[in-house]
Every structure is written in structure tokens, then in C-alpha cells.
């Protein structure tokens, strides 16, 4: 059985309204810039923070935060 | 009906200057002898039979997929700015299946670029041929030509499309969609949104537009010049295409050249051409390469480089959409940068927090940095702003006026911390938008901070060493600050 793929936090910057809830729930991986928008750690979510990260994703009031495959690219 | 010459001009400033003219002689180019796509401005190729006599019949391949190998062998890359390999987009859209759609992108939101509008008016059939051949290659049953041309030119193009249809030239139906005159209207997801009936604002991807674009269908988006090149590769083959340009960057590119004397030239040259043979560098204080998402380079550096990413990338620049500008030696590069940065901030779609917050702050800081009095070149002629000159005259005594002026200058010198702010904000907006507008803006601004380092030092001491602070490059509608929803349609 293959190992669980590494996941990375990502944010939809159009949906994000800068509530800042994510940085309170997951300060290990998320800080806020000087305008209140999240700065995400550019590293896979470590296993011990997986549950907390999933919880943070669920609790984003703008539904802007999500977990993506760490090797996923974008346009 | 033929397009009026005024429709050749991009939106906004300096309209008379931006009419395309015959470019410099191509003799300085490494390989290409004459332009491939671009006819002389006074000899547009509008007539279908004349077009077919000049270039030969439209070589349909007979089935989807068959053209892609030729495009790959030719090494054609996108001429809209990103230089992405064309065969990879073709393959990606073909692989998606479904009912793909092909879009010729002629939005050309960049005010300093005139090449796409000009090509549309001077050699429209090459572009329309390219749409047909690309549609066949990816199995598309529909084509769109997305342009920011005026109403008269759009009607004229519609007439040409009908003619082609009745002449049996076109197999795929093509319709025109108008792009709003916004800098980012040609960004792939903004384009897909506009053609689907929405505003021309970028969307957050994934998935890619090639998988899910216009109306949710797989969408091939290619710049109009790229499609024109593709139509000639289909006719003459990849080996012919590679007879111009360099082995790594084959072919020609149409460039908009802003010369120091204010002339705007349109020219098609082989990739790999020396920049010094395109621009009059003797009269230049600095060179802007690749437009407003591009990079400033010192003139001495530019003189050593060629029009190719291999040459430009190590210096933080790229060919982009072929906008090259030589800033006259007597202009202030910081004033120019501040003006363009303000334009880029206004052109943000305002959807992403870091871009919405960061770009206006960057623009304001650059305006502060730029706004210091010019050093009088000749003591007898005051180069201080008019208001100060009037104040000086109305002051009680000359001594008082001089003292007041000195004090004002001292208090107006920008705070050196402004540079730290600029670099921090640049880092904060980079890679944090749905589209690449913040990244391109940061590339442009940080290149200015490098290239104009010496002038920044002078400004921090309260003095601008440039004699002429008039804006040089066009910025369209910078004056209009307020934006409405209709601006995006």
C-alpha cells in the first residue's frame, strides 16, 4: 500500500477575506502579513499537525483554505 | 471597408506617435532577410485571393493532432509574453477530448504594445488561418477572436470572417469577442471568463484553462501573432521556420520599439537580434525590456544583449511580448517607474488581498521617492516646479526665498526607510495573487530599484538629476481612479 501523499496548505486568494482565523488555529504553519492575509509555510504539513490542519481548513469562514498535494503545480 | 489608421493606435496617450511605421532595416539581424508576417503599414493584405497568392493555400491536415509534430519540431513558443511551447498547449487541449474551443488572443492590454492590433489590421488572414489550423489540430468546432479593437475595426473583421466562410476557406465558425481595455484582460482565465459572458477578471485556477476554460470546455488560448506563425509553419514546415532566430529560440517576433526621440516603431526581427541594432541606445538613459511586467536594464548592459531569453534571463529580463523602450537620457527613471507603478496598481482587479493592499502602497512609495525637485542644469534657469518659482518671486526678499526653498527641499527628501518598505511589500505580494499581475509588477519595480540605484541615492539627498520629468511611456487611463463593473466587460 502506498504511503499517504504529502499535503500542503494553499489559499484561494480571491476567496480569502483576511479574517485571520487560520493563523490563530494553526500558528505553526500560518502567520499573517501586515494587512491580515495569511502567509502559508511552504512545506508539507507534518503528520503530527495533519488533524489540526484539516480542522483549520474546515473552519475558514471564507472557505478559502484547502489542502493540496505537495507536488501539485499550477498555472 | 478598410480600417482607419487611427484604429492602429493603442488606447490612450500619444496616439499619433504609436502608429506603426516601417521598422529599422533588418540587415543587422542574424538570419532573417525580410519580415514573415508583417506587411508594410501602407500595404495591408486584406484581399483573400491576394493573401492566398502570397502565402499559398490553407494546408488543412485532414485530421486532428497531425499538425502538432510540426509545431513541436519548429520550436514555436507563445508570442504573448510567457513564451510557453505551443505544441504542449495543443497536446494538452487535444488530450482533454470533449468539445474544445480555440481562442486567438489579441487583447493586448499593455499600453506600450501595438503589435497585435497592428497585425490584426495589416495581416488578419494569417491570424484567421492560424485559428482554423489550430482548431483542426485540437479537434475544436468553434473559434473566437478576442480583441480590443474599436467598433469599426471589429465590424470590418466580421466582414472578412464572413467572406472566408462563403469562400469555403474556413471549416470552423469564428466569432469576435471584445476585450475591455484593461491591462490584465488577456490573462487566460480573465479571457475565459469574458468569453463565457462574465467580467474579464482572472479566476483562481486549478484547473487550467486548457482543461476547463470558456463555458467549462477545454480551451486553447494562443496570442494572435503566435497563430500567424503557426499558419506559416503549417505551410512551409519546421525547417523553414528555423531558418530565422537561434537554435533554442527559433523564428521571428514582432516588436514595439519606443525610441528615445519619441518615435514608436513596429518591426519584425529574428530572435537573437542585438538590442543595439533595434534601439537607439546612444541617446538612452536606461532600457525597459518586455513591457510593464518586464525589467529595466542599464543601457550599457542592454548594449551587450540580444532579443532572446537565453541572453536576457540572467539579467532578470525576458523578451515577453516584444516591447522595448529606450528611456531618453534626460528623463528620470524613478518618475517613469512611479507613473507606471501607479498605472499597474490601478489596473489590479482588486480581488486578492496582497495585490489590493500592496500595489497601491508600492506605487505611493515610488511616487514619494520620485517627487523631489530637479537640480537646475543651468543656474540661471530654475528647474524647480512652477509653484515654487512663483512663491520665490512673491517672497519678501531673495534671501528669505532661498532659505525657505532649501528648508522645503530638505524636508521633502524621502525617508531612506522607504526602500526597506518597497522591498518588504515586493516580497509580500509576490506569488500571492490568483494571476501573475503582482509578480510582474514586482519584477518591474525591483528592476527599477537596481537599475536606478544611483538616481535613488540622489533622490534620498533631495535632488533629482534628470532635466525632464515628463512621462515618456504611455499609461492609457491612469487619470481615472474610479473603476466600475462595466470596465471589465
Task: Give an overview in words.
The complex is a heterodimer of chains A (75) and B (489). Chain A is of the alpha+beta class and 75 residues long. Chain A has one domain (7-69): 2-Layer Sandwich (Alpha-Beta Plaits), CATH 3.30.70.20. Chain A has helices at residues 21-25, 50-59, and strands spanning 7-11, 30-32, 38-40, 65-69. In chain A, the strands form two sheets. In chain A, strands 1-4 form a two-stranded antiparallel sheet. Chain A has a two-stranded antiparallel sheet with strand order 2-3. In chain A, strand 2 (30-32) and strand 3 form a beta hairpin. Chain B has three domains: 5-18 and 37-241, NADH-ubiquinone oxidoreductase 51kDa subunit (Rossmann fold), CATH 3.40.50.11540; 252-328, Ubiquitin-like (UB roll) (Roll), CATH 3.10.20.600; 334-488, no CATH class. Chain B is globular, with a radius of gyration of 24 Å. Chain B has helices at 48-55, 68-74, 86-96, 115-122, 124-138, 151-166, 188-195, 224-236, 238-241, 299-302, 309-312, 333-346, 353-370, 386-394, 398-412, 417-429, 437-451, 453-460; strands at 101-106, 142-147, 173-178, 219-223, 252-258, 264-270, 284-289, 295-298, 323-328. At the A-B interface, loops of A face helix 13 of B.
Amino acid at each position: 500500500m502506498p504511503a499517504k501523499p504529502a499535503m500542503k496548505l494553499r489559499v484561494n486568494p480571491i476567496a480569502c477575506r483576511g479574517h485571520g482565523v487560520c493563523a490563530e488555529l494553526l500558528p505553526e504553519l500560518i502567520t499573517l502579513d501586515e494587512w491580515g492575509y495569511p502567509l502559508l509555510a511552504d512545506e508539507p504539513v507534518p503528520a503530527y499537525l495533519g488533524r489540526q490542519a484539516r480542522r483549520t481548513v474546515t473552519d475558514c469562514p471564507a472557505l478559502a483554505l484547502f489542502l493540496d498535494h505537495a507536488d501539485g503545480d499550477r498555472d | 471597408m478598410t480600417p482607419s489608421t487611427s484604429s492602429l493606435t493603442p488606447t490612450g496617450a500619444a496616439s499619433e506617435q504609436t502608429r506603426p511605421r516601417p521598422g529599422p532595416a533588418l540587415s543587422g539581424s542574424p538570419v532573417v532577410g525580410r519580415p514573415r508576417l508583417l506587411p508594410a503599414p501602407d500595404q495591408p493584405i486584406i484581399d483573400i485571393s491576394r493573401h492566398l497568392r502570397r502565402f499559398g493555400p490553407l494546408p488543412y491536415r485532414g485530421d486532428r493532432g497531425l499538425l502538432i509534430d510540426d509545431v513541436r519540431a519548429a520550436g514555436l513558443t507563445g508570442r504573448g509574453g510567457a513564451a510557453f511551447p505551443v505544441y504542449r498547449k495543443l497536446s494538452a487541449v487535444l488530450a482533454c477530448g470533449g468539445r474544445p474551443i480555440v481562442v486567438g488572443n489579441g487583447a493586448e492590454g499593455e499600453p506600450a504594445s501595438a503589435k497585435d492590433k497592428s497585425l490584426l489590421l495589416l495581416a488578419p488572414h494569417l491570424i484567421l488561418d492560424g485559428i482554423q489550423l489550430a482548431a483542426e489540430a485540437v479537434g475544436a468546432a468553434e473559434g473566437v477572436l478576442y480583441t480590443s479593437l474599436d467598433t469599426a475595426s471589429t465590424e470590418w473583421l466580421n466582414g472578412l470572417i464572413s467572406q472566408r466562410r462563403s469562400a469555403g476557406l474556413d471549416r470552423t465558425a469564428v466569432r469576435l469577442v471584445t476585450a475591455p481595455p484593461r491591462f490584465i484582460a488577456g490573462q487566460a482565465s480573465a479571457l475565459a471568463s469574458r468569453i463565457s459572458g462574465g467580467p474579464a477578471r482572472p479566476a483562481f485556477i486549478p484547473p487550467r484553462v486548457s482543461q476547463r476554460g470558456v463555458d467549462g470546455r477545454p480551451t486553447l488560448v494562443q496570442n494572435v501573432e503566435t497563430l500567424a506563425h503557426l499558419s506559416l509553419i503549417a505551410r512551409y514546415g519546421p525547417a523553414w521556420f528555423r531558418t530565422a532566430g537561434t537554435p533554442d529560440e527559433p523564428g521571428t517576433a514582432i516588436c514595439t520599439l519606443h525610441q528615445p526621440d519619441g518615435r514608436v516603431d513596429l518591426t519584425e526581427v529574428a530572435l537573437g537580434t542585438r538590442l543595439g541594432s533595434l534601439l537607439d541606445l546612444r541617446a538612452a538613459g536606461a532600457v525597459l525590456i518586455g513591457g510593464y511586467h518586464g525589467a529595466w536594464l542599464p543601457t550599457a548592459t542592454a548594449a551587450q544583449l540580444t532579443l532572446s531569453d537565453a541572453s536576457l534571463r540572467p539579467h532578470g529580463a525576458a523578451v515577453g511580448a516584444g516591447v522595448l523602450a529606450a528611456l531618453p537620457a534626460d528623463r528620470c527613471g524613478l518618475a517613469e517607474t512611479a507613473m507606471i507603478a501607479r498605472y499597474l496598481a490601478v489596473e489590479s482587479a482588486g480581488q486578492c488581498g496582497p495585490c489590493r493592499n500592496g500595489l497601491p502602497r508600492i506605487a505611493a512609495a515610488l511616487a514619494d521617492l520620485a517627487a523631489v525637485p530637479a537640480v537646475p542644469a543651468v543656474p540661471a534657469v530654475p528647474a524647480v516646479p512652477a509653484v515654487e518659482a512663483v512663491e520665490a518671486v512673491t517672497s519678501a526678499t531673495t534671501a528669505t526665498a532661498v532659505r525657505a526653498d532649501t528648508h522645503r527641499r530638505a524636508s521633502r527628501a524621502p525617508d531612506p526607510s522607504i526602500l526597506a518598505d518597497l522591498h518588504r511589500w515586493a516580497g509580500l505580494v509576490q506569488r500571492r495573487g490568483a494571476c501573475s499581475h503582482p509578480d510582474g509588477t514586482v519584477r518591474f519595480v525591483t528592476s527599477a530599484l537596481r537599475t536606478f540605484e544611483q538616481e535613488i541615492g540622489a533622490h534620498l539627498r533631495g535632488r533629482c538629476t534628470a532635466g525632464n520629468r515628463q512621462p515618456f511611456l504611455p499609461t492609457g487611463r491612469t487619470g481615472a481612479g474610479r473603476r466600475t463593473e462595466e470596465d471589465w466587460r
